Known about the structure:
By secondary structure, the protein is an alpha/beta fold.
Amino acid sequence: MQTPQIRRRERISPAAITPAATSAQPDNKPHSETRPSLAPVRTRWRPGSAVSPPITDAVPSPADEPVIVVQVPAPTCRPRRERYTATPVVPAGSEVLPLTNRPDESLAVEVTYRTIEEVKPPRRQLRTHSPKQVEQIISSIRRLGFINPIIVDAEGTIICGVGRYLAAREMGLSRLPTIMVDHLSEAERRAYAIADNKLVLNDTWDEKLLAVEIRELMVEDIDLPIELTQFDMIEIDALLHEKAQNDDAPPEPDDGPPISRLGDLFDLGGHRLLCGDSREEESYQILLGEERARCVYSDNPYNIKILGNVSGLGKVKHSDFVMASGEMSREEFTAFLTSVFTLCARYSVDGAIQFQWMDHRHMREMLDAGDAAYGELKTLVVWDKQVPGMGSFYRNQFELVFVYKVGKAPHRNNFGLGQWGRNRSSIWSYPGANAMRRGRLNDLALHPTVKNLPMTIDAIRDVTHRGEIVLDPFSGAATTILACEKSGRIGRAIELDPKYVDVGIMRWQKATGKQAVHVATGLTFTELALARMAGSDEDGGDLPDEKDKEASGDDDAVSLDDPDDEDPDE
């Protein structure tokens, strides 16, 4: 059995070669094509050679000189760096091939700082770098440092890292970390520059694990800008979004007295629901304080009678709303809508989008109120409910949402022309409560005009980012709050009818498994219900803590006067 051999690159000993060969002094760097008079060669042994094959690269020698080969016994451990004296031997059966430029096996990567003037962009920039990408690199360098050096050749020309160079130049940096590569030929450098960019494009994300990682980052360090991952908020939202379904069995309104009372403020896991009047500015001050909404999603009362009309003659029936349930004239309803829209705009950021629902019978009032409160009507959206409702003349199968914009600042557009995988139009086709599907009767029982949950989620995802506030001045069954819960937004809602405040809270609790908390007392909704049911009927079941806080003027106390000075249920 032949003794294993190792490959070793050697200098030619002056004593072992002719004077003609000594005229060209070999350098310590890997061979390059700087000396055209020298012909780099390599020995390759054919299988079956009678001589034990020394696996050694030859050092360049004149073309008329023999190939220089050295045979070294294999060491029992990692050999230390030594210099061997070569002897001119031409083994029988050897094949001479050109020597490729390869780094020494002991080559170590060294980071060298160069002035930005010493670093030059390549003659051809094969990858384009948008201003947005350069800004992303800048934000990464500012927060995390210049971790990834630029790869350059011996002359300082960039092989890889043009984007980092552009970012550094934009930032005004004077010195750049670089790694110098000088063992490659010109062709190899160009090929490596292409490969370095292409290899990144050949892999894919494990989207489930990526979503887990991003969720953990958002929870563990709330001060860390998640955009440092170089995913923008639209991409993160799409990655974390889980397709929602309508509730299979949402809670039905209770026929007994409601637990909630006018003025109650509830915390629903970071969302907030106020039992109050959305026509009064005090409601918005209590609910939002210094916060401002990025979006309003409002299912306004339509000023039509509910009992015997919207409820129909079927199994599920609803009583009239506490206001705007057919009792207002055209002028009164226009004034009603204008007052609410004005407050919604006032408590929103500049550029906020406002979704305002209305049926076709009151489009004129909606347009007049919208013109008075908003800057621009962006579009009119039609909800195609897929199944027609009751009626004798063209059974109605749609509802309308008027999409307004507040102020003049740019609004959010998270769908564009479908570049983020979301193709959206002004026709929203989602099943309505009348559609024959699982949970249909539950939705009908929940609220007379309940909106489709996935539709609501998609709408607020269109114009907001995760963590931004969505305001709903007519909460009803808290569809907007539940949509915010499922999409990572923050819900702020107002509902005048205590019965529907209870329904919304119970619906949210059932969907999340969490407990709503009464802000004034710190009691959970269940504890509050038990305390109020055990309280005196004479004082309305108020809790001692609530009375004490109101008497002492505690800032945490919530107090609103009924505008009609009577129980809205009576």
